[in-house]
Amino acid sequence: MKRVVVANSYESVKELWIDNQRGLISRPKNYTFHKVVSISQGFTIGTSPWDESCKNRRKVAAAAVNRSAIQSYLHIFDFESYEIIRNLFRDSCNGRNEINPRSYLYAYALRSSLSINYGIEMRSLINDLVPEIFQVESEISGFRGITNNWQDYIPILRLLSRKNTLAAHYRARRDKYMKILLDGLKSAIEKGIDGPCIAGNILKDPIAKLNSDELKSVCLSMVAAPGEIIPATVMQGLGYLSSSHGQEIQERAYQSIMENYPNGQVWEKCIQEEKLPYIAALIQEILRYYPVSPLSLPRESISDIVYNDAVIPSGTMFLLNLDLERYQDPERFDPCRYLDEKPKKGFVAIPHYTYGAGSRMCFGNHLANRQMFTLFTRIISAFKIFPEKNFDPEILNAVSCNTNHSSIVAKPKDFKVQFVPRDQEALEGWLRKSGECLK
Ligand code: HEM
Hints:
By secondary structure, the chain is mainly alpha-helical.
């Protein structure tokens, strides 16, 4: 049995998550995830209760993906977005083949975050491991769900549960690839053939701020956190763009690209700079409209919290339920809500809680925004996105598009879209040039 507080309004989240940051700084421990899945590699940062070690891991990892650190990963965004667009172009045969973008997006996100953590120099090792990591991490994310592991709340079920065996099975498979990756990086460092990356920086730090278990936890956070959540977000965004209203949005996005980069420089420029307010607004609207982690990650209070006339005791679990009602016309998909029309259509940040809030808010948000900016800008410059013949309107709604409501990250329905090149010659030119530079 567990006491849980669910905050349902924007204001209550502000009061509990932001005004009471210190009190809500911890994460709960659950039997299946913490005592069965995680006993060997330790916890990710996002599943660690608050203590001195969590504080240090969080500090090091957050510094490695902040706005300025991202500059050292731009070559990775360049390479991975080139690869996914090349593959979509090849497989869609000028739009004749409808494509389910899921596997392309998962490979893109996983390879990007593994390269950021272990270095793009480890690319061939990473490519070999991607299918296994993808499968194991999707299964493990099921064990993190708050509502799908009854044995977390009813201890007697632990004696009988098949979940223990399954969790142990995936833990063993995870241990194997985590070791291969770290050993690969250590050997590259010894040979002097490693590149800039998060784990390498920690290993080479002369005044090692993290011990080897803490390093494992940072690596695990980089493997587990973005691999599922970015593809789920982008996939739902592509689904919306393929709809009839999405056609108008694509055209506006394309116009803004052409206004800013009339001579086709967008392909290179969108790696170096983030200067397209309409695309930035589109990404925020996708995040708001399709929140991929609708109950965020659970928190646990470390002190009593007074809320109105109630005292919520220390050790309570808190869930953040996203509140759409605070937006004007909340069910309308409209990137313009983030654009100030006067004087120069600038981007205006309107807070949403898709990245959480307060002391344990997602610190990968700059990285995620930048990765999605590059990807959407290149995809919209390269293709017109049309719906599949059997278009399913359920993909236009965040709730009906999600096939697994008990998982911590939404699992979008399978659907297909058509990627039709806007200008085949220009696209082939971009791909040829990138292919040569990135060899
Ligand atoms: C669309 C992209 C993403 C979304 C929507 C997202 C969402 C979230 C949410 C809701 C939380 C819980 C925040 C809270 O408790 O207040 C979180 C935590 C976290 N995210 Fe993300 N995330 C995304 C991408 C990333 C990326 C790219 C990274 C890679 C660095 C990342 C790393 C983390 C970590 C390490 C935590 C745990 C922070 C802590 O517990 O202190 N996330 N994320």
